[in-house]
Amino acid sequence: MAERVLRGLGALAVLAPFVVGLTAAGADRDGEEVFRFLDSEIVESSGLVLEDDRAHTINDSGDTGRVFTVDVATGETVGVTYWADGPDDVEALAPAGPGHVWVADIGDNTASRDSIEVTRVPVGDGERTVDEETIDLVYPDGQRDAEALLVHPVTGRLYVATKGFFGGELYAAPPELADDAPNMLGLVGETAGIVTDGAFFPDGEHLVLRTYTNAVVYSFPALEQVGAFDLPSQQQGEGIAVASTRAVLLSSEGQQAPVLRVPLPASIRSVLSATAGPTPSPLASSSTSPSATPAPEPEGGARAVDDLTEAAGDRSVWWWVVSGLLGLGVLVVLVRALRPR
């Protein structure tokens, strides 16, 4: 019986993310479409990095190791970088300095990996194949599934946000990464559950983590919640990038999926503006260099948007929907697993 129970729970762990993703279809908040991924090869955009007039993205697990570079004015792919033949479960991208991104092979739905991997990959226009050193990361307290990799904009330090169903954690990589030995992650604190991506704001004192249906802004490193807000309906929302202290950009799985610009609630913008200096334009270059100085945000370039209503508390009504579906899934899978054969 114990074996059947474990088999049932394992099956639920694999299926649950897809069940949760489907609940996002009912969200009614709007976003402004910035562009669409027109490349038929981009079908599961699971990470988003902005750099000047380019956007970089990757497909979710199952693809070869490649990063797409897209012209944000047209949505056309202008570059593809092949960096690995057979990654395990790529789930995220993060900025790694001009012309580079961190590719995060960090997914682990079955909690079976001894370590996860990140790779600093050069990207840009044109097609190229590169051979870069992967860096192993290890959790201090057992395996975790994760889909979010963040880079601190001042220190360049890497952070992994895990994807627990009812709560996750933020882990920090060592300040100096070794490429010839595993790097032990350190726990920073607890976060929301079902996190599919995240990013720091330019001040380095705040970060945002998204789920399929909402986003939460935290102070850093205290991880105190500043505010939360609902996200627009997406097929399976996976990516987020910080456009400025006024908005975020969202990507989603699906063919020809749009990238949406969503303004931050006024209360969150107020907190960010109190701590931030000049911020980059909505499509400004992302850099991990401590000496990089962001360009001022142009006031006339972005369309004025209405304030979004801040979501109250840590959970929106969608969390209750998700919880109900997961509870039903647990019951169905366990009944099947325990049925005599």
Question: What does this protein structure show overall?
Answer:
The termini are close together. The longest helix has 22 residues. A hairpin with a 5-residue loop joins strand 18 and strand 19. The N terminus is likely disordered. The strands form five sheets. This protein has a five-stranded mixed beta sheet with strand order 2-3-4-5-9, with no helix packed on it. Helix 1 runs antiparallel to helix 3. It is 16% helix and 36% strand. It is globular and about 45 Å long. The chain is of the alpha+beta class and 341 residues long.
Please summarize what this structure is:
The protein has 341 residues and is α+β, with helices and mostly antiparallel strands. The chain is 16% helix and 36% strand. The strands form five sheets. It has a five-stranded mixed beta sheet with strand order 2-3-4-5-9, with no helix packed on it. The protein has a five-stranded mixed beta sheet with strand order 6-7-8-10-14, with no helix packed on it. Strands 1-22-21-20 form a four-stranded antiparallel beta sheet, with no helix packed on it.
